[in-house]
Amino acid sequence: MRRQADDGILLSQEAMRMTDEKGVQSIERALDIIESVAEEQDGKHLTAIAEETGLHKSTAHRIIMTLVGRGYLTKTVSGNYRLGFKLIEEASCYINHLELQTEARPYIAEISAHLGMSAYLGMLEGDKVIYIEKMHKATPEKLYRQIGAGVPAYCSSLGKCILSGYSKAQLEEIMADCSFMKFTEKTIDNMDALHRELNKVRSQGWAIDDEEYEKGHRCIGVPVYDYRGEIVAAVSVSGEKHVLTDERMPEIAEYLMEKAGQLSRDMGYTG
Description:
The chain is α+β, with helices and mostly antiparallel strands. It is 50% helix and 18% strand. It has helices spanning 2-38, 46-53, 57-70, 85-115, 157-163, 168-174, 191-204, 249-266; strands at 73-75, 81-83, 118-125, 128-135, 150-152, 207-210, 217-225, 231-240.
């Protein structure tokens, strides 16, 4: 009986391995087809795609139909297949991210110099905020230090700004695997508290990290919008509590909203 059980486990593991390999193979074939189609502006016929990728015509057709259904390929009136708008849309998002970083750089430098604080630009990745631009208040030559680092969105002003642009259902999905680790006694530690905080952000137009990630440290953030009117990033400044005082916060927030508004308009925002 023990031998039979062990054999059953081995067979199950082998079946899973084969399934994984087939999945990877399907992805590779789909990418081969996309790359083949991308070579010609007017697209290619099924026969040409199958020949170039080395796939059987029926296999190529099955994968192509899946890609057409998802919007990554489209069929022309001539019967050719060319890149679909979904693929172009995904590529445009990446290009927009690069454009945002380029457009934001002088604003981040100006904000840091004007306020005498470290300034940041961040974007959401999962339930974390990733710094994609930074200017240190004292040493501008350290502009790229910490770029690429991530912090939990629920306890950062950048993260709260971006999360405020999502619906309740979207937030539940984004934060589904979040453990809400407490970094200080002020850290938000549950979804209900986060929803209340985000309602406040939506109402006033800016967010604060009030010693939630690091004791004695505060951050103020404001959202950045794209041409669709969606929040795609946020700008923030940080400083010690005695620098970012309650009295200064409204004034600093107003200045940041002005600069973020200019950046948003540079990105095509018309609201």
